[in-house]
Amino acid sequence: MRVDDCYQLGFVTKTHGLKGEIQILLDVDIPEQYKNLESMFVLRNNTLVPFFLEHIHIQGNKALVKIDEVDTIEEAKTFVSSEIYLPLSFLPELEDNQFYFHEIIGYELFDGEKSIGKIKNIYTLSPQDLIEVDYNGVEILVPLNDHIIIKVDKKQSKVYAELPIGLLDVYLNDNED
To answer: Is the domain of 51 the same as that of 121?
Structure first.
């Protein structure tokens, strides 16, 4: 399994107790969907390693996890700060205009009917997620929210937006100096 075939579920924040349990911070919208998780991949030395779970208890955006055959705090400590992944096939189906961020990378972004460029990346920042678009060689950052993103056409790989007035001008004027 490759990282490109997976999505990050979260990362291990700390150990819990003395019998090998770990705490995972879940970076997902609906943590409860993972309450019956039986296995997960842990990124170790740039390789995804599968582990089976004895149990998982979801508490808000955190999970208390017991990995099979990890029975001591010393063994559990080796997982702290590790990234946790699941295959993309585990992602729940979304409704028509909903999308996962990774899905729209490579899509063409439109402002109304005008093509702005290809989506290169998504930045998940606090307080605002951003779409990075290549506009004729200039990096444009577009806020990712429901007021700006109007429609996602997955069949045609297009994202339709209503960009704030002057957004493109800010980036284009900076490059005229």
So the answer is: no
Give the contacts of 35 (CB within 8 A, at least 6 positions apart).
Answer: 56, 57, 58
Residue 147, token pair as written in the block: 């007021």
The pTM of this model reads 0.70
Phi-psi region of 80 (alpha: psi -120 to 50; beta: other; left: phi over 0): beta
Report d(CA 115, CA 173) in Å as an integer. Answer: 19
* CATH assignment at residue 159: 2.30.30.240
H or E element that contains 171: helix 167-174
Predicted local distance difference test score (pLDDT) of residue 124 = 82
Per-residue pLDDT band for 175 (boundaries 50, 70, 90) equals low
Other CB atoms within 10 Å distance of the CB of residue 82? 17
What CA–CA distance (Å, rounded) separates 135 from 115? 9
When pLDDT is averaged across residues 59-77 and rounded to a whole number, the result is: 97
DSSP code at position 20 = T
Domain that includes residue 157, residue range: 101-174
d(CA 49, CA 44) in angstroms, rounded, equals 7
